[in-house]
Design a protein that fits this description.
Blueprint (H helix, E strand, L loop, with lengths): L3 E12 L2 E7 L2 E3 L3 E5 L6 H8 L7 E6 L2 E2 L8 E5 L10 H12 L3 H11 L14 H13 L5 E5 L7 H16 L3 E6 L2 H7 L2 E6 L2 E7 L6 H9 L5
Parallel strand pairs: 4-9, 4-10, 7-8, 8-9
Antiparallel strand pairs: 1-2, 1-3, 1-5, 5-6, 10-11
Helix pairs in contact: 2-3, 3-4
Family: Belongs to the ABC transporter superfamily.
Keywords: ATP-binding, Nucleotide-binding, Transport
Protein name: Lantibiotic protection ABC transporter ATP-binding protein
Length: 232
Amino acid sequence: MSEYIVQTKKLTKKFKNQLAVKDVNLNIKSGKIYGLLGPNGAGKSTTLKMLTGLLHPTSGEIYFDGHPWTRNDLKDIGVLIESPALYGNLTAVENLKVHAKLLNVSDRRIEEVLEIVGLKNTGKKRASQFSLGMKQRLGIAIALLNNPKLLILDEPTNGLDPVAIQELRDMIRFFAKEGITVILSSHILSEVQQVADYIGIINDGNLMYENEIKKDEDLESLFMNVITRKIG
């Protein structure tokens, strides 16, 4: 595995006359948790969608594990962007079986990911009856089916209660210990500070800061200084 699981060079996305992401140079180290921070509408989701092939860059380059990104790399990437795409009338196992068939993954892997996300005992309960936290965990289980090297979670704590947030935090730490690189995007600074090793701060489509999180760093002050351009 390369030192960097993801690097981008002048990554840019333009929608008609709007420049949503501008010359972004990301450097995401393998096996680490990377927090992508920014206000709502800053360009976080657009950037992540380009990393996962959901959007095609207008210009720039993406490198995955040391080589130029291709769609073949999706086999090593797990993604949860926005709300998980679930079949409400199916159980957790049945939802996973749909995706496992597409990925040519065994039923044994289904049991493994259900264990990881704590949904092994949901039985015949349909996904429509799940709490928001359970739905998020099922979405993460789907993202883990292919044993990804990289897991991308876009605003995963939105709408979750404190207990579900703590469970998600513990899962993210576990993934990193297992050697999975995690990109976690959020506008909630405290959540990222508790789990991330590195952060990038994006505002108005520009990556304005990228560095390792220092112990006892005042992330709120750093964030405000960066987005008001006091730190380059």
